[in-house]
Amino acid sequence: MITIGITGTLGAGKGTIVDYLVKNKDFVHYSVRAFIIEEIKRRGLPVDRDSMTLVGNDLRAQHSPSYIVEQLYQQAQASGCNCIIESVRTPGEVSALRDKPSFYLFAVDADPRVRYERVVLRGSETDHVSYETFIANEQREMSSEDPNKQNLKRCIEEADFCFDNGGSIQQLHEQVEAVLQKITYRRPSWDEYFMELANTASKRATCDRGRSGCVIVKDRQLLVTGYVGSPAGLPHCDEVGHLFRKTIDAEGHVSNHCVRTVHAEQNAICQAARRGIALDGATLYCRMTPCRTCAMLIINCGIKRVVCERKYHAGAESEELFRQAGVQLEFFHDELQQYDNQ
């Protein structure tokens, strides 16, 4: 779970970033401002910038400098989703969030005149002020030696990423997107890498009943690939249609298989045989649990590990064959793949 905190000057565009993350990236939004306004109303005070400052500082003084964001973070944790906490304003809040896993602080700023015009257009409960009052309010929140009080200058300085919102909304979105690419990138594991290659091989498949692919690897080196298709020189399903045969497995499942094609695992093993490539001790990557015939070929050619993206709903027999033969079988996902044709 990624947690993003947003700080910045008044009217700089924190809400614009929030909207982008919520609508386009499925982040869940939690607002310090909304939290404080709810408390202001509970106390029967007017909803304005003075009350925002007074009540926010009071909550932090009563509990801790990070009290508000801690409350919001607990709500975010319960959701289990990527979240964004808007209006981080004190160094204490930043410090508390820094202790959370996968936390990043965003800061946004723009020219004061531009920000004031945006605030006037926004017209929220705390925005009906003159330009002079707007600047005075901001200056009051820019710095403080009290850890319970707003210190926007310090929060902005501590941000991981800073955005200039002096241009268009599209330009701000592009800045945010570039940062998201940095923080969400994760180098794939070897298994993920080779499974992706198997999925790429599947794009060459010529039977639309089941476009699966396969790669066989040893010592992290790619040996051969395979994909579903008719025997060499024979017409493909995509060209002439499917050739069906009804089968009943050991558990009584009735399946209508297309038998015109050679399975991806079989094609990969055949390629290795034609090229004189030994497969002893190799690992095979494929979309789902191999069928019984493929499982027997895998065992006989010496492959010792099979990695599947998902379980095949009729794959119990193959799983048992692998178990008896000492072939290690692993799955990326445990859910069953309802799929009758390879």
Total count of strands: 13
Shape: elongated
Rounded Rg: 29 Å
How many strands, which pairing sense, and closed or not: the largest β-sheet? Answer: 6 strands, mixed
Structural class: alpha/beta
Helix content: 40-55%
Number of helices: 14
- Measured distance between first and last alpha carbons: 36 Å
Question: Mean pLDDT, as a whole number?
Answer: 88
Q: Per DSSP, what share of the residues sits in E-state strands of 2 or more residues?
A: 15-25%
Describe the structure.
- The protein has 14 helices and 13 strands.
- Strands 6, 7, 10, 11, 12 and 13 form a 6-stranded mixed beta sheet that branches. Strands 2-3-1-4-5 form a 5-stranded parallel beta sheet, sandwiched between helices.
- The longest helix has 16 residues.
Q: Which keywords apply here?
A:
14 helices; alpha/beta; 20% strand; elongated; 6-stranded mixed beta sheet; 342 residues; 13 strands; 5-stranded parallel beta sheet; single chain
Summarize the entry for a quick read.
The protein is 44% helix and 20% strand.
Topology:
Blueprint: E1 3-8, H1 14-25, E2 28-31, H2 32-43, H3 49-62, H4 67-79, E3 83-86, H5 91-98, E4 103-109, H6 112-122, H7 131-142, H8 152-157, E5 161-164, H9 169-184, H10 190-202, E6 213-218, E7 221-227, H11 237-240, E8 244-248, E9 254-258, H12 264-275, E10 283-288, H13 292-300, E11 305-312, H14 316-325, E12 328-331, E13 336-337
Parallel strand pairs: 1-3, 1-4, 2-3, 4-5, 10-11, 11-12, 11-13
Antiparallel strand pairs: 6-7, 6-10, 8-9
